[in-house]
Amino acid sequence: MGVLLIATSRFRKLGEETAEGSYEQRKRREAEEYLEGMRQFCAPVFPGVCYTREDLAGAMALFTQEQVDCIFAAFLSWTEDFLWVRFLRDVGNIPVLYGVRVRESISFTDTFRETDFTEFLSAGGLVGALEGSGSVQRFHPPMFETAMGTLPQLMEQAERFLKASAVRARLRHSTFGLLASYNEVMWSTYVDPYALFQKAGPELRFLSVATLVKEIEAVPEEAVRSSMERLRSRYPVLPDVDEEKFAASVRASIALENTGRNAGADMLVLNDVDPVLLTEVGLRPGFIPTPVGGDVPVVPEGDIGGGLAVYMLRLLTGKPVSFVEPFHIDLEQGCFAAGHAGPNDYTDPAGSVQIARDVRFAKTAYKHAGAPFAWYLIPPGRKTMLHISQKDGSFQMVAGLVDALPAQHFITSYSHGLFRPAESELIPFFHKLVEIGVTQHYGIVEGDCLAQLETLAHLMGFPFTRL
Q1: Cα–Cα dist 395/458, whole Å
Q2: Which of 72, 264, 325, 375 is most exposed, with minimal Cβ within 10 Å?
Q3: 399: burial class by Cβ within 10 Å (0-12, 13-18, 19+)?
Q4: How are beta strands 415-421 and 335-340 bridged, if at all?
Q5: Which alpha helices (DSSP H) does 265-415 contain, by range?
Q6: DSSP 378
Q7: Closest C-alpha to 229, from 243, 239, 217
Q8: Is 393 helix (H, G, I), strand (E, B) or coil?
């Protein structure tokens, strides 16, 4: 995070003979208070307090050199606005958080003494912030937010802003792999690859089933055996699981991660119901993330918007993210069931996992029909549920809070759970989704990260709806 703190040369020497020091010394101490707070959650890039045009030019050059994800800007007192208007004109395409600090106490009662007069001027950040706000409305910087409060409150808002800014920056350097095509039975999940790159950031690479088959053939037997042993040691294996098909599913899972990694993909979107995939590979890979990998997340059904939702939540939280679709509303129990077949992140230690047959495919003619997968039950607790899909040439984000309820495994062949909206009744919750116009796919992660998501949507120019 770049840190731009603006002060005035007019006051620099005031208070030099006082015990509390000069205005300039007081501003140095205040700057260190900001930096100490920021070091709790980021690496601040601080060029020193800016007083002159030369200071500002040096600060802008440093921010560019260090490729900061965003800039925190604040007036340390009243100051001339010639630095601020140049900053607004020249800052370019980078998120800016404009902070207004409210002191928790005022240390003087009058300004008769020089030290108190110096402190009075030093405490005048509100004057500078109000002055600067008018120029903000003239320049209309595209990724600009304001924050106001005590220093701890400002730091809380700065941390949220930085996390969203860092995800935005990471997306612009990310690559998605699509293997091997969109899902032809779900046209609403289609996205324009050019719009994905232009609006969201990731480059899309198209990967082939033939490449995956070669990767499957190249997986060492030892990697398969050791992965199977790790899985057995962590999760119960149901008695009807076929060992050869278990090995085939693990091998295909390792190969799928290798395919994405070798293609330089940070996220892999798999059309796991593609007839060519099922014919050539004979199963849906069932153990993603693998015990030996886990660095390339995978979502099913060729849904790039769903992959974007999972990837964002993963970057924001660093936690396992489930890929789900709501199945039905249970009015008697006051909840809805949701989950998804195919590859899903099962690694949350609070969840319940069994290694079970993919019953849905068990009666097909595919080579490894019924090959097992990590049958995952999503653990109880407050969750954030995020949807992303293409709309009006860009992308929309729709998010809400849900509570996952205690449950037992009850839907075969699907990772799943029971949920209740945290801020809405069931029918209005889904009616709103239908009115907005979405698809059936959502990412779900532990905790409440709605504030970060709303900030991220603003920075990316996406409409955001809170459920």
Answers
A1: 12
A2: 264
A3: buried
A4: antiparallel
A5: 275-281, 304-317
A6: P
A7: 243
A8: coil
Tell me how crowded residue 393 is: count the other CB atoms within 10 A of its CB.
Answer: 9
Share the mean pLDDT of the chain. 96
- Please name the amino acid found at residue 166: A
Say whether pTM exceeds 0.85.
Answer: yes
| Per-residue pLDDT band at 146 (split at 50, 70, 90) | very high
Q: Which of 122, 140, 171 is the last residue of a domain?
A: 171
CA distance linking residue 56 with residue 50, whole number of Å: 6
Does residue 184 share a domain with residue 88? no
Q: What integer pLDDT is reported at residue 99 of this predicted model?
A: 97
Contact (CB, 8 A) for 22 and 14: yes
88 token code pair: 């607004």
Q: Which residues pair with 329 in a beta bridge?
A: 336
Q: pLDDT tens-digit profile of 238-285? A: 999 999 999 999 999 999 999 999 999 999 999 999 999 999 999 999
Give the Cα separation of 305 and 198 in Å (integer): 14
Give the C-alpha separation, 344 to 300, whole Å: 8
Per-residue confidence band for 361, with pLDDT thresholds at 50, 70 and 90: confident
**Where is the domain boundary, 171, 186, 210?**
171
Which of 350, 292, 360 lies closest to 322 in space, CA to CA?
Answer: 350
Q: Which amino acid is at 20?
A: E
Q: Are residues 259 and 400 in the same domain?
A: yes
27 and 134 belong to one structural domain:
yes
Other C-beta atoms lying within 10 Å of the C-beta of residue 190: 17
From the list 289, 283, 298, the residue with the least C-alpha distance to 231 is: 289
What's the confidence (pLDDT) of residue 108? 87
DSSP 203-268: EEEEE-HHHHHHHHHHS-HHHHHHHHHHHHHHS-B-TT--HHHHHHHHHHHHHHHHHHHHTT-SEE
Contact (CB, 8 A) for 461 and 394:
yes
- State the total domains in the chain: 2
Measured CA to CA, the distance from residue 237 to residue 371 in angstroms comes to: 12
Specify the CATH number for the domain of residue 187.
3.20.14
Decide: residue 137, CB within 10 A, 0-12 exposed, 13-18 middle, 19+ buried. exposed
Question: Do 294 and 237 share a structural domain?
Answer: yes
Same domain? 275 vs 333: yes
Are both 305 and 452 inside the same structural domain? yes
